[in-house]
Amino acid sequence: MKTPFFTRYVIFGGLFTFMGAAIIFQMARIQTSDIADEFVQQAGFYGGENRTVMPERGNIYDRWGHLLAGNETVYEVGVDLQQVRDPETIAATLSSILGTDYITVRDAARRPYLEGESVYAVLTDFVTIDKVEELNQLKQEFAENFTSSSKDKPAPSLSGLIFTPHLKRSYPEGSLSSTLLGFFSYLDRENGKGYFGVEEKYNDLLSGSSQKVYIPFDPYKVQELPDIPAGTSLILTIDREIQASIESILDKAVENTGSESGTIIVSDPETGEILGMATTPRMNPNEYWTYGEIFPNPTPYNRAVGTTYEPGSVFKVLTMSAALDNGTVTPDTPFIDTGVIEIGGAYIYNWDSGAWGPQDMVGCMQHSLNVCLAWVADQVGPTDYYNYIQSFGIGHNTGIDLSGEVTSPIRLPGDGQWMMMDLATNSFGQGIAVTPIQMIMAIGALANDGKMMAPHVLRAMIDNGRQYNTTPQVIGTPIKPETARTITTLLSRSLEEESSDALIPGYRVAGKTGTAEIPGPTGYSSDVTNASFAGWGPIDDPKFLVYIWLEEPHTSIWGSVVAAPVFSDVVKSLVVLMDIPPDSVREAMSNQ
C-alpha cells in the first residue's frame, strides 16, 4: 500500500518535470523564432530602435558609361548630449555655416542627457563633406582654445558634435534626361522610392534588398552595419551626347516658335533602342521637391509617353503603308483631286481647301492631301484598314520600360460609336489619338524592313559584378519588307520634290510633316495646332528615326514651317555624333 508521502512525491515530481519541459521548450522556441536575432543584437544596450537599412542604390549610366544617376556621401549632424558644453555656440556655428535655425538647434542641443533614453539628438542632415570638414576644423580649434581658457571666460566649444556619413541620390548632370530618369525621394532615408521614368519602373532592382538592424541610441555604441549588397545598376540605351544635343535643339525650337511644349525622340529603328528622349518642361531631380511647381496638375512628367494627341498628317505614312502593302495602290496610282470627297455623309477637304488636280501617290504625300488619303483609306476598306492600324500598335501600350505610359483607345467598326466618317478622318490623323512613343514604334517598321521593334531604354543590368544584356524584341511585322522600302523611297522623293526644310545636304532621308487642329469644347480650331515631323535615314540603311512634336506653336501653325527645320537640325547633329558618313562617301566605300 502506497503511503501519502509517495503520492506527494509523484505529484511534485510530475509538476517539476512539466515546468522544466516548458522552460526548455520556451528557450528553444525563442532561439529559433524570427526575432531571435533582434534579441541578440539588443543584448548589452540600454536602448535603441529597429531601423530599416537600405543598401546602396544602383547607379544609372548611359550606353557609354557616363553616370546619369548615382550616390554621394553626405552627413547627418547630431550631438552626443553627454558631451555638449556650449549649445549656444553649436547653434550659432551651424546657423552661420549651414543656414540652420538657431533656436531649433540650440533647443535640441540643450536636451538633458538621460542614459538609455536621451543620449543623442539630430541637428540637421544631408550636409556636404566640405561643410563637415569646415565644422570639424572649427571643432578642433575650439577644443584647443577651451583647454587654455579661464573659468571666468570659457572659450566657445563645439564639443559633442557628431558627423555620421550616409548616401544621398545624386544626378551629376542636373536636369539632363530628367524626364526620362525620374527621381528618387532621398530625403526619406527609410522609405524613399523612385518616381517616374527609369527610377520608378526599375525601383525594385535599383533598391536592392533592405535589412532591419537594431541601432542603439548611443552613437558610440553603434556597431558597424552589416555588408548589404548594392542594388542593381542599369546601363541605358541613351547616348548622353545625343540627349544633350536634342534637349538644346528642343529648347531653342520651343522658344523660337512660342510653343507651349515640345518633344523629340531619337531611336535606332533596327533595335528599338531609344538613343535620346527630350521633353519640356524639365526639372533638376537633385531638387525633386520642386516637382509640383514645374509640373502643376495635370502637366505630365514625360510627354513622350504620358500624353496623347491627334497627330495630323504625320499619320498618313501609316495609311499609305497599309494601302501599298495590301496592293490597293502603288506609288504611280493616279488620283484626280477635286478638293473634296464625301465619305459616310461627311465632306472632307484639303488643308488649304484647294483642288490639286491630277496626282499620283507621291504627289498626294508631297502635298499632304486629305482628300487623297481619305480616298485611299476608303479603297482599303474599314476592316483591313483598322487591322493594319492595330498591327502598328495604335490603340495599345507599347510596353516601353518607363513608368507613366498612357494610351487612348481607338473607335473600331462594330463598336457602336464608330461611323464611316471616322475612316476618312482617321486616315489623315484626325479623330485618333496617339503618344509620340506609339508613333515612333509604328513608323519604326517603315524604317526597318517591316519589322516593328519594342521600344526600350534598358541596355544592360549589372548585378553582383556581372553584366546582363537585354535582347531587342520584334513585336510585329505589320508590313512586308518591300512595302517598307517602297514607302521609304516614296517619302524621300516627296521631301526632295517639295524642297522641304527637313532635307540635309549629303544625306537622303524619308519623312512626313504633320499639322493637326486641336479639338476643343466647341470643335476644332484652325488657329491652334500640333505640329509634328517623323523622319529616318540614311534611306539605304536607316540608323536613326526621329519624331518631333511641338505643341501649339505661335509663329506658324504648320508642321512644315516649325517642325521640319527642327528635324534637319537634329539630323545634322546625329550624323556627327553617330559618325555616319555622307551618302557619297558610303557608296564609294561600298564599291571598293
What is the secondary structure topology, with strand pairs?
Elements: H1 4-31, H2 36-42, E1 48-53, E2 60-61, E3 67-80, H3 87-98, H4 102-109, E4 120-127, H5 129-147, E5 161-170, H6 178-181, E6 183-184, E7 194-195, H7 197-201, H8 203-207, E8 211-216, E9 233-236, H9 240-257, E10 261-268, E11 273-279, H10 291-294, H11 303-306, H12 316-325, E12 335-337, E13 340-343, E14 346-349, E15 357-359, H13 361-366, H14 370-380, H15 382-391, H16 420-427, H17 436-447, E16 452-453, E17 458-463, E18 466-469, E19 474-476, H18 481-497, E20 510-520, E21 523-537, E22 544-551, H19 559-562, H20 564-577, H21 583-591
Parallel strand pairs: 2-9
Antiparallel strand pairs: 1-8, 2-3, 3-4, 3-5, 6-7, 9-17, 10-11, 10-22, 12-15, 13-14, 16-19, 17-18, 20-21, 21-22
Helix pairs in contact: 3-4, 9-20, 12-14, 12-15, 12-18, 14-16
Our count of domains comes out at: 2
How much β-strand is present in the residues? 15-25%
- Classified in CATH, the superfamily of the largest domain is DD-peptidase/beta-lactamase superfamily
User: What is the CATH level 1 assignment of the largest domain?
Assistant: Alpha Beta
Described by strand count, sense and barrel closure, the largest sheet is: 7 strands, mixed
CATH level-3 fold name of the largest domain: Beta-lactamase
Distance between the termini: 120 Å
The appropriate CATH architecture of the largest domain is: 3-Layer(aba) Sandwich
* Secondary structure tally: strands: 22
The quaternary state of the protein chains shown equals single chain
Mean pLDDT: 91
Shape: elongated
Helix content: 25-40%
List the total number of helices. 21
Helix and strand content put the structural class at alpha+beta
C-alpha-based Rg, rounded: 34 Å
The unreliable regions are: none
